[in-house]
Amino acid sequence: MQMRALVTGASAGLGAEFARQLAADGFALVLVARSADRLRELAAELPALGAADVEVLPADLTDEAGLERVAARLQDAARPVDVLVNNAGHAVAEPFHASAIADERAMHELLTWVPLRLAHAALPGMRERGRGGILNVASLAGRLPSGSYAAAKAQVIALSHALDARYRRDGVTVTALLPGFVATEFHERMGVAADTVPRAGWADAPTVVREGLAALRRRRGVVVSDWRYRLAAPLLPLVPSRLIAGFGLGARIERGSGR
Ligand SMILES: NC(=O)c1ccc[n+]([C@@H]2O[C@H](COP(=O)([O-])OP(=O)(O)OC[C@H]3O[C@@H](n4cnc5c(N)ncnc54)[C@H](OP(=O)(O)O)[C@@H]3O)[C@@H](O)[C@H]2O)c1
């Protein structure tokens, strides 16, 4: 049976890697991001990897009309989507006291409202078919008291838990993927130099994506990726919040700048 996945933020970083690995698994794909040209380039690459069919769906997910176009695609029963990867994301570079509120709102919407809206669109069909998976790309930062990005990621972890607990019995798995630092365009887009984080701290996108997809297949509710962050994760609750905030440790987890 032909399986289909929709990946948001597929034009770069983790999203492009999700598309490649899902293509290699034989999935048909729907690629979503703002950069139509980059999506088309990726789409041209995917059939050779194994994708049966590739749709390009350019959309700004922080724009109501763009988001609703993607929601409508997820609700199209004639071309069902079996796996939704809620991956698109960015972070506000400035600390909370100095950021523009419009930037905070755009980030908050992209990281929390968009995954909720798209899960809401995808779930009824998955439930009806008795199978489906939603992979929400959160962050290990969501377990730290480190700014509004971390708070938004905490929210998507909570949403994943809540939906997984409720819909698992209907055959739908909702998995939260919690990476630490990953080498993508994420930090560059924020204007943060890669060398702010020691080389040994960077996970690579193929590993993080492989572990995320394996967790979804095994119907796990949450996965921390990669191994170095799995080792660190149990220690995080032992670090006092003041220390994390005061020394910019939490901020470094995503911003790599310690500002
Ligand atoms: N890299 C890390 O260290 C790290 C760590 C933990 C979690 N994460 C999370 O991983 C996810 C993927 O990030 P990444 O590291 O792969 O970053 P990336 O390389 O910067 O890719 C971000 C993707 O999101 C898309 N995007 C951004 N704003 C969008 C919008 N308004 N509408 C639609 N698409 C949008 C971008 O495409 P366009 O610009 O073409 O729209 C791009 O495809 C994010 O949720 C991020 O928070 C990253």
Supply the helix-strand structural class. alpha/beta
DSSP summary: helix tally: 10
What number is the mean pLDDT?
A: 93
As residue ranges, the low-confidence spans are: 253-259
Strand content: 5-15%
Largest sheet composition = 7 strands, parallel
CATH architecture verdict: 3-Layer(aba) Sandwich
Tell me the CATH topology. Answer: Rossmann fold
Helix coverage percent of residues?
Answer: 40-55%
Structurally, the number of domains stands at 1
Bound small molecules, by name, code or SMILES, are: NADP nicotinamide-adenine-dinucleotide phosphate
Largest sheet, spatial ordering of strands: 3-2-1-4-5-6-7
Could you describe the 3D structure shown?
- The chain is of the alpha/beta class and 259 residues long.
- The protein has one domain (4-255): NAD(P)-binding Rossmann-like Domain (Rossmann fold, 3-Layer(aba) Sandwich), CATH 3.40.50.720.
- It contains ten helices and seven strands.
- The protein has helices at residues 13-24, 36-49, 64-74, 101-129, 147-167, 186-189, 205-217, 227-232, 241-246, 249-255, and strands spanning 4-8, 28-33, 54-58, 83-86, 132-137, 172-179, 222-225.
- The protein has a seven-stranded parallel beta sheet, sandwiched between helices.
- Strand 1 (4-8), helix 1 and strand 2 form a beta-alpha-beta unit.
- The relative contact order is 0.13.
- The structure holds NADP nicotinamide-adenine-dinucleotide phosphate (NAP).
- NADP nicotinamide-adenine-dinucleotide phosphate binds at residues 8-15, 33-35, 38, 60-62, 87-90, 110, 137, 139, 179, 181-182, 184-186, 189.
